[in-house]
Structure formats: structure tokens, C-alpha cells
Amino acid sequence: MKVEALLCLNAVFQDQPNVDFYMNKRRFAPLGEFIEDVLCHWYGEYELLEKHHSYIQWLFPLRQQGRNAHAKPLTTSEIEIMKNTAEIQHRLRRAYKLMLNFFGVKLVGEEEIEVIRDSNFSTRFSNLNTNAHNNLRITRIVRSMGELGAAQYQAPLVKFFLKEILVEDQLQNMKESALKYFLPAVKNDHERDALSEYVLKHRISKNAKRLLPVVTSLLPTPITHWTPAYSEKEKKWLSEEPGEYREDGWYQLENERIVLPATLAPEIVRALHSRTHGGKTAMAQQLEPYFYVP
Q1: Distance set, CA 248 to CA 206, 222, 223 (Å)
Q2: 114-117 and 243-245 as β-strands: parallel, antiparallel, unpaired?
Q3: What does the pLDDT look like over 50-70, one tens digit per residue?
């Protein structure tokens, strides 16, 4: 007997509202439609998708009770049925694409899944920045895809939003939700760690761009005038510290401070002194926020 049939037999005496909805046997509630009607007729209906608040808990169910009292939490038996029923998996992916279009993005690729901007991204991004409740929807979508056997769609969506926030300087009202909720919801440890590294890398890169003018204004000669030559001992220490090498060879810590090789530190201090003629304490106060000597 097929797995699908066995699972259905085991759950036959249980209430399965989420399975029934995805099998097109019941409408979502309250004031709802059958899932096929939603998937076929709601695509591109942005005002309807924005203002209707009952459907999202049914399209992307979770184990926890949401705000819609009519939508029931996923049960363990429902999860197994939904993960192993081809018809449900097909509808789940259609629901995912429906919401991606609402957000102004789309899927590309089959084996290598990627999320990119859609042609409507400008107006849809404006909507995302204005209506913060969509951050809750995105969190729910990411978590639900992981629960229902479609975890491969989690990381590409989260990475897309992180890139828009950290690199493209878009969707700034989404930043806190992306870091606190979207990213931790990714189930695969390797993918989640890679996303965390991506965040760290681009936070440091962005901070470095902001920091360089400050550092340059302190010194009579730009810091790029010097070539950092870290000793083997210093390199070993750096390998254990959170941060990264910048393109100009300097190592920048996670807290934004630039690491000075011990051999260069005295020369840079002398350069600062020649500009400010400050005392030891004054120079230490000026340099400490921006530099570190291991």
C-alpha cells in the first residue's frame, strides 16, 4: 500500500482542517474560498491580498495557534500527510509563488533556486515598507515551508530580503524582522549559518564605508598609505576573532575597529601626534574607538 494511503488511513478519524483545505474540500474561514479559487483568481489581486487577513493562516499553517481562531494549528499527522501528498505539495508551491508575486519578487531556477525582483517590485516594495504586518506573513511563510517539506524555498527568500536590506538599501522597515525572525526560521543549519555570515560580511562592509572618512580625518595621511603586515602570531589571533580582511589588506573586527600590526602602531600614533600635538591620554581617546592593537 502506498505511503499516502497509509497516512490517510491512520488519520481518517482525526479532524484534518489543514489537509482538507489543501485538498480543496473546504473553504478557509472566516469568509473564505476554496484553495483552487484562491490560487486561480487571487493572483495579482494585491488589494484583496493586502486587506484580507484570514487566508494566510490557511495557506501557510503552523503548529502554533495564530490570530485567526478559525484556522487550526497543524497536527503531526497533518504534517506527514501534507509532506507526502503530491497534490498538496503542488498547491503549496503555487501558494508560495502567489505570495512572492504579492511581495514583488519571483522564483527562478529548479535545482538552484533563486529569488529575484519581479517587474512590479517598486510598487510592491513600497507596500511592504508601509504595511509592516506583511513581515509577520513572511515569517509565517518561511516557517511553514520548513514544516511542510519545502525547506529548500526558505533560504533563497530570506537571502533575497537580506540583500535588499543590507546591500541595496531597500526595505529598511523590514530589517529588524529579517534579522530576528526570517533568518532564524531557516531549518537547514548550513544554510542558516551561511546567511548569518552573509549578514556579518555586509554589516562590516557597510560600517567600513562609514568608518573610513572618520579615520581619514584623524590622520594627516590616509590609512591606505600604509601597508599592513601582520605577524604570524597576529594572524593566528585574527583567525580566532570575528571580523574580516578588507580589500586594502586591513583586518576589521566585528565591532568595526581596524586592527593595527604592532610594528605599524607607533608610526600611526606619531602621525596622529604630528597633526594634533595631543597628549598621550587625548590621543588614546581619539584612536581607541577606531583602532585595536592585539
Answers
A1: 15, 12, 10
A2: unpaired
A3: 999 999 999 999 999 999 999
Q: Which tens digits make up the pLDDT trace of 96-123?
A: 999 999 999 999 988 889 999 999 999 9
**Whole-prediction pTM:** 0.69
Query: Which among 197, 99, 106 has a CA at the least distance from the CA of 156?
Result: 106
Domain map (residue ranges) of the chain? 3-187, 214-292
| CA 252/CA 290 separation, integer angstroms | 10
Specify whether the CB–CB gap between 46 and 127 falls below 8 A: yes
CB 187 within 8 A of CB 146: yes
* Nearest Cα residue to 254 out of 219, 218, 206, 217: 206
Q: Which three cell numbers stand for residue 177?
A: 524582522
| Class of domain 214-292 as given by CATH | mainly alpha
- Indicate if the alpha-carbon torsion angle 240, 242, 245, 250 is positive or negative: negative
Alpha carbons 241 and 219: distance in angstroms, whole number = 26
| Spatial distance between the Cα atoms of 182 and 167, rounded to a whole number of angstroms | 17
